[in-house]
């Protein structure tokens, strides 16, 4: 886990973090998260088992009488169970601490990725602004020259009737025929 925390620290110190490095650290932190959560649940189960053992120990202490069992054995059992309880509580505290540190590291990685995405979006927006200004220039040229080209063609220059005759009739075996019209 400490290697991953060092990697997160190194990536956060860079001006622009490596996307692949962030992805690798995220995967490693996810694995650590899964492992820590499993260990916390294992400690919880062990604590429940220890509580049951203490109940059994209490019953055993009541049954302990000096002629059958020396008092030192009962005390030794009691001390061992107290040690186990203390040890499990400390382990759980450390595991919860590791989980919190992992959560902080994952938040940092998420923030680094979000900052990269925001920087990419800003770059795309700037490029689109340049493209938009080019498109505005093209539209302006079209608006200026299109009406001029439309009015520059004189209606007398084009004989519409001659165009219809040429387009509507065709020669077939030396005769002019009408084109077929489909209904």
Draw up the topology in text.
Blueprint (H helix, E strand, L loop, with lengths): L1 H12 L5 H45 L7 H82 L7 H9 L1 E3 L2 E3 L6
Antiparallel strand pairs: 1-2
Helix pairs in contact: 1-2, 1-3, 2-3
Give your account of this protein's structure:
This protein is mainly alpha-helical. Helix content is 81%, strand content 3%. The protein has helices spanning 2-13, 19-63, 71-152, 160-168; strands spanning 170-172, 175-177. It has a two-stranded antiparallel sheet. Strand 1 and strand 2 (175-177) form a beta hairpin. Helix 1 packs antiparallel against helix 2, helix 1 (2-13) packs parallel to helix 3 (71-152) and helix 2 runs antiparallel to helix 3. The longest helix is centred in the middle third of the chain and has 82 residues, at 71-152. The model has no long low-confidence stretch (mean pLDDT 76).
Keyword list:
mainly alpha, rod-shaped, two-stranded antiparallel ribbon, 4 helices, 183 residues, 81% helix
Q: What is the strand tally?
A: 2
The main pleated sheet reads as: 2 strands, antiparallel
Low-confidence stretches: none
Global morphology: rod-shaped
- Reading the helices and strands in chain order gives HHHHEE
Q: Quote the beta fraction.
A: under 5%
Rg, alpha carbons: 43 Å
Count of DSSP helices?
4
Gap between N and C termini: 81 Å
Mean pLDDT: 76
Neighbour order of strands in the largest sheet: 1-2
Helix fraction bin: over 70%
Structural class, by secondary structure, is mainly alpha
């Amino acid at each position: 886990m400490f290697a991953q925390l060092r990697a997160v620290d190194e990536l956060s110190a860079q001006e622009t973090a490596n996307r692949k490095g962030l992805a690798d650290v995220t995967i490693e932190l996810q694995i650590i998260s899964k492992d820590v959560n499993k260990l916390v649940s294992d400690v919880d189960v062990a604590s429940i088992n220890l509580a049951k053992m203490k109940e059994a120990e209490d019953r055993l202490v009541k049954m302990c009488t000096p002629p059958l069992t020396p008092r030192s054995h009962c005390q030794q059992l009691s001390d061992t169970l107290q040690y186990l309880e203390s040890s499990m509580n400390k382990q759980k505290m450390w595991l919860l601490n590791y989980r919190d540190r992992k959560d902080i590291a994952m938040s940092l990685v998420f923030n680094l990725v979000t900052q990269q995405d925001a920087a990419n979006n800003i770059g795309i927006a700037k490029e689109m602004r340049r493209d938009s200004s080019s498109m505005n220039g093209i539209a302006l040229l079209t608006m200026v020259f299109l009406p001029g080209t439309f009015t520059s063609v004189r209606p007398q220059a084009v004989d519409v009737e001659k165009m219809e005759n040429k387009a509507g009739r065709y020669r077939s075996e030396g005769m002019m025929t009408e084109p077929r019209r489909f209904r």
